[in-house]
Amino acid sequence: MTIKNLTYLVVAGLILNGCSTKGKDVLFEKVDDSGIAFTNTVVDDKDANIFKYRNFYNGAGVGIGDINNDGLADVFFTANQGANKLYLNKGEFKFEDISTKAGFGPKKQWSTGVTMVDINNDGWLDIYVSNAGNMMDASLRKNQLFINNHNLTFTDSAAAYGLDNDGYTTHASFFDYDMDGDLDCFMVNNSPIPVNTLNYGNARDTRAENAKVADFLKGGGDHLYQNNNGHFEEVSVKAGIHGSLISFGLGVTIGDVNGDAWPDVYVSNDFFERDYLYINQKNGTFKDELENYMEHNSIASMGTDMADINNDGYPDIFTTEMLPDNDYRLKTTTSFDNIDIYRLKVSSGFYHQFMHNSLQLNNKNGKYKEISHIAGVEASDWSWGEMIFDADNDGLNDIYVSNGIYRDLTNQDFIDFFANTMIQKMVLTGKKDEISSIIEKMSSQSIANKMYHNNGDLTFKEKAKDWGLDIPSFSNGAAYGDLDNDGDLDMVVSNNNMPSFVFKNKSREKNKNHYLGVRLKGVGSNLNAVGAKINVYIKDQILSKEVIPARGFQSSVDYKQIFGLGQVAKVDSIKIIWPNATVSKVQIKKLDSVYVFNQAQLASKPFISNAVKLSPLFTQVAANFDRHEEDDHVDFYAERIIPRILSQEGPRAASADLNGDGLVDVFIGGANEKGGAIFIQNANGTFSKKAQAAFQPFNEMEDVAAVFYDADGDKDMDLLLGAGGNHKLKSSGLLNHRLFLNDGKANFTHQQNAFPEFGFNTGVMVPLDFDGDGDMDVFVGARNTPLKYGVTPASAIYVNNGKGMYTDQTATLAPAFTNLGMVTSASWVNVLGKSGNQLLVAGDYMYPILFSFKGGKFVEEKTNLNNLFGWWQTMQVVDLNGDGLKDLVLGNMGKNGYLKPTPDAPVKLWMNDFDGNESLDKILTRTVNGKDVPVFLKAEMQEQIPLLKKENLNYEVYAKKSFQELFKPEAIEKAVVKTYNICSSIIAWNKGNGQFEIQELPIEVQFSSLNAILPYDVNGDQQLDLIMGGNLFGFMPQFGRLDANYGLVLINDGKKHFKVLEDKQSGLSITGQVKDILSLPGKTSQQVLFIRNDYYPVLLKMNQQ
User: Fold this and answer.
1) Whole-model pTM over 0.90
2) Which of 153, 548, 805, 1042 is the most exposed place for a label (fewest CB within 10 A)?
């Protein structure tokens, strides 16, 4: 079968199956008789194919704008291998193809992006077309600028304007970056250089034109052109713009990310280069500050868009990637970076990148939080265009994603097939029939596009099917505009090798939501007020839009702004921030209308930041604490298919008055041959390190648990330390507990042989007088068995002889402790409200377990917590609602991670020797459609269990099998199974008698893991508030990172409600993995210390409120 025939069959099938939505009760009606009949036809041949040109299937763009000033938005399509098309809007969803007479006839250029822009400021929209492809003919790569002749014809004048760049341009955006009143141009190019030839070399600062490669490969990088009286001159170098071969730009979006009224630029880069966030320095230059603003980004970013998803007036940023949301597609078309490649990229300066869509939530203080997983928008398959807009006029911006690639280039079975040397030689010959036969081996699977409906709580629900948008396709560029002037936004989508989609939005007819239309008229050389920001104020909401037409992937949206208002009956006011940083405020009385605001006719004032000047709760103060330095042990080298490492659990810290001066001092644990240290608080609130000779012999040990208590009954605070690191064995002695006795003056000596040998990593240490004899015994919760993830370690209860010497009496007093689980936290406190305390214990794959000491043994109490199997990280047990019962605050992974287990869809860890090689295997599964399926992909699984490769010769076979179908029933039956079915951090409100009411902590807490909690009344209202820290980085690259916590303060109203302070209110901006939080009261101020893994502690002073 030829490629042409195959293309015909695929397209014909899609046309037949992609049925019209006309007449159906859906929000979007697919209009088949509009007169728009465009297909972006892409056909492989011996000279042009996916093997010759890497971006062969990337598709083309759509532009929407009124090119004849008749009040109706027209539609323009770029074409890769055919003629670009211009369709004139005749009204009533009828369009006329005027392409040929307008000057868009047959061509040889490979056109990609389109931007509608009035380049010569004559009041008529021109059309800028980006070109790429044609690797051997630079003249055909020159971008084109079609000037509007005011008579439905256009003339290419790119050379005259200096905009005929002959690189490989994906897209261009026009905006006034220097505020001189005219439109400049930012352009993203994408060189076709074979990525594997770059060897992850960081050439970010070497411009493409200076690279030592063939000339035809040099057309990459970003380009900034300054408009000088109508002629554009490149200023990329002096403006600080990256322009290297590794700048594989696929998208560019413009907006004011930091609220200073100057436009900033976000570029989404494919392959191993990270994205760029260029912050405007207001002096003609930009600074790439992505690593300061964001904790990670998508690894192979495609398109990008910038808009406000939570109506706070600040733009958020969305980028698309290639992660499938379907388990079968995941296991047949996907491969993740292994840990070595990830570490290589990070060490080479490519930052933290992961395979998923990224939704960056603007933190309003120069930071973003990546929340795609909790938002539910992280996976949409091979995605290209995205549009953030209000699809149903409810006042909240939704997210549309166009996806699908005509050939599954990443199909793992095809990759195995193509790895054959003979096949590669056939490609190199260039013979058409041989190339065609190889290309036909690639699968061609159309994918339905996604429509994520905004729920108003930072989460989204996928509604493509409900809204009539779930047509399988190979979609790329997409644009929106009000094509019929009815007050809602319609959509046009470009498809590869199948007809484009035209969708009529029926929101106005169906839900009767109000709207407000705004059209701006600027001054000087920017008549369309490109770059202006419109804020619509409705009570405590700010609906904001920026006039930037170039959006998504290679596309351009209409200039007319449509604000959905839902059922709101009144708009309080409208503020327009013009491109010259002046502000006009207007009032309107009538909704459901389009208003034209002319800058020259409105009063305006200079822009002043609307950021409220707050006195933050905390202010960071200088301190001389040592930096924690983690060792470079990587658990994954010993155990390949485990989800996370357990060798970076420290440091932990402890505080107490160590020298009797009434001031709280602190111990901070160490690691990596750099031992822990004592810091004595001075009268002025500063801290001085006090050397301890007794600590020196133990510098090799890693401090993962620390507690001060009186071990020997002499009324001062002694120090007990627990060790970890996960790569030290019992025989080394480096996991033993260490007790240091205080002489009352903060001088410590090691109490030799105070505890028996210990062979596990420590999770927590709790002093407790469980037997009431007046001395402090110790519970030690074991974190894990070294180098054996999942294997249950033995926790212990140690009895004090009154002099600080301990014996292990677990076997007689608490035999259940030997099989508790992977303990992370514990507390000795009165939970039941009866006389005496209980021991509450939690950890990984555990439910919170409550023990009482009765009849000479620790006995588990019955509670309704026994179905909450979390990866619990920390706990606090305090009365938060004043009812006299202590409530449980339990820190977990949060809901922004890769796995997201629920009681109905748990994650399980199965442990047994599944392949009969006398070694323990561990298989992590998750629940998909009621079945247990492996989390890891075939390549990783068969590396651990080679038998799987023999029994599953290709990826397609493996992808269809559940865990139970992959392994023998007898092996499964004998397996040890651990369950993880809740990821939320929670409060368990104590109702007495072991009964608790479970409440999820606010969504901001769920953005990341919760590792440390400090209850403290920060506002003096006699209610305990909660200060929190989190983040975990030690996951396999498939799982990404949990990094969206910069420290949190939750204000307690005493009635089971908490208000999360914005970070600019709290003053917290703490990056990294927080492991502990300590309260450090002083003589004149209250201070709080955040302890971080592999970084400096952060000391904060609490300000008077």
Assistant:
1) yes
2) 153
